[in-house]
Amino acid sequence: MSAFAPGAAVRVRDDWPETRGPCHIRTPHYVRGMEGRVIRRLGVFANPEDLAFARPAAQRALYHVAFDQPSIWREGKVGDEIFVEIFEHWLEPA
Amino acid sequence: MSPLLETDGESLLTALRSLLADKNLVSETEIAEARAATDAASPGQGARMVAKAWTDPAYRALMLADGRKAAEALGIPMLGAPPLGVLENTADIHNLIVCTLCSCYPRAVLGYPPFWYKSPAHRARAVRDPRGLLAEWGTVLGEGVRVRVVDSTADYRWMVLPLRPAGTDGWDEGRLASMVREGDMIGVTSPTVREPY
Amino acid sequence: MDKDVPRAHHDMGGVSRFMCDPVEPEPHTLTDFDRDVDALRQVLARKRMMTVDELRRGIESIPEEDYLRLSYYRRWIRSITDNLLRRGVVTEAELAAALKDAR
Question: How large is the average pLDDT for residues C18-26?
Answer without folding.
Answer: 96
